[in-house]
Amino acid sequence: MKWGEGMANTLVETRYGKLQGSKNGSVYCWKGVPYAKAPVGELRFQPPQPPEPWTGVRDATKFGSVAMQPADALFGGGLGRVAESGSEDCLFLNIWSSGADGKKRPVMVWIHGGAFLFGSGSMPWYDGTQFAKHGDVVVVTINYRLNVFGFLHLVDLFGEDYAASGNCGILDQIAALRWVQENIEAFGGDPKQVTIFGESAGAASVGTLLAMPEAKGLFQKAILQSGSGALLLNSAAKASVMAEKILHQAGIRPGDRDRLLTIPAEQLLQAALSLGSQVSYGPVVDGKALPHHPIEALKEGAARDIPILIGVTKDEYNLFAITDPTWTTLSEQQLLQRIYREVGPVPQQVVDYYLHAGDESEPTWQKLLRIMTYRVFTNGMLRTADYQVEQGAKVWMYRFDYETPVLGGKLKACHTLELPFVFANLHQPGIANFTGDSPNRERISKQMHHAWISFARSGDPNHDSLPEKWQAYDFGKRAVMIFDASSHVAENPFGKERAVWETSIAK
């Protein structure tokens, strides 16, 4: 496409048609761009198909529909999440760039979290304006099918036509990455310099993509925030049992394809949600789309050529204790019983460690929740990092230690707290209700935001605003960048905790 005097424009031509975007200051944006056909009708529970080309100019100034999902218990209310009505027709992406000018900028593709249950690429927290403005990178945020629409394993109940249904959400992400390969040059991006990054279920998605043969070559770097390749995935057998429960609840008999494809989306979603914790959503190790568990594939070198940046927040699980206050009211024995139900038995030596390792005046729930943080988040991060180092890949590790003062300080450095810091979106509506308004926030945000930009550019997160050199993670020093009021590099900060677990389990 030709540009007058080489100037960028909001009108861009993709392989599928022309898009009219908008401009905000120095940053251009295109929203609600379809990267696949609407997965409705015959395409429900099928792998994504390339989008239909269009004639004329498509308006790309408004976000597309989000995926079908329940109300968001974590981020509803005053935390800046806009209530959005979900639709099965949800396979859209959004692009921020300094210009569609032929310049080949690094590309950062964001995969949102939300337990594979809710979330969207249009949440204000994920606005890519600051990345494009400060880093001259192109940011892409995506929607993908969630919950029952993205991860319902139907092959045993409906035959080989539905062999990929348990991984539709991940296949959507791959389709979005293919779209980026085909089209991002038109937006000033370099398809040979793509970094995928995500948080929570988004980071678990990144861990899965690192291991999937079909995703090979679609990205060159990866960032995993509070998630890893070691997530607890559903086996094909377990996923089939859950699918059977959901279909029974929805009144769909195995093999009744007409009913499967015509039941209203809201009705199917409500049937699944009514089962509560009996079902869980996420990628399925089906032997086809996902041949092996991601952590095993990483151990064997599936991503040895991909540098990764990986980390956790210090008090991940505190967020879940606030959304489910019973965690904070149970007795010590009740707490332990609940933890065992969630993550399996925990050696007494480990329990004793958490009860006595820190501040003795802390409430018992706070001490024991660290078991959940380690089992659900930290352990997987360490395993993912170790396997990558063993394979010779570059690894950079961080921990986010800034504690929010809101809710009486109960949240501490909880799950998702780092997100507005990474995106430099502390100014977005409602953010201060979550992060507090400490003057340290801006400095920490600048350090993280530019580290992510530097990593996307070179595979190395070091930059001038860091207080000291961030050393790569290795088996010698196990260096970790601690982001806090006084950010610093710590050597092996997880070492003592990890040793307690490993020696106890070895016994």
Automatic annotation (TrEMBL):
PANTHER family in the cross-refs: CARBOXYLESTERASE
GO molecular function annotation: hydrolase activity
Lineage, top ranks: Bacteria, Bacillati, Bacillota, Bacilli, Bacillales
CDD domains cross-referenced by the UniProt entry: Esterase_lipase (cd00312)
Gene3D superfamilies: alpha/beta hydrolase
Record's protein name: Carboxylic ester hydrolase
E.C. number(s) listed in UniProt: 3.1.1.-
Keyword rRNA-binding: no
Domain Carboxylesterase type B: 10-499
Family, per entry: Belongs to the type-B carboxylesterase/lipase family.
SUPFAM superfamilies on file: alpha/beta-Hydrolases
Membrane-crossing segments per the record: none
Pfam families: COesterase (PF00135)
Keywords carried by this UniProt record: Hydrolase
Cited InterPro entries: AB_hydrolase_fold (IPR029058), CarbesteraseB (IPR002018), Carboxylesterase_B_AS (IPR019826), Type-B_Carboxylest/Lipase (IPR050309)
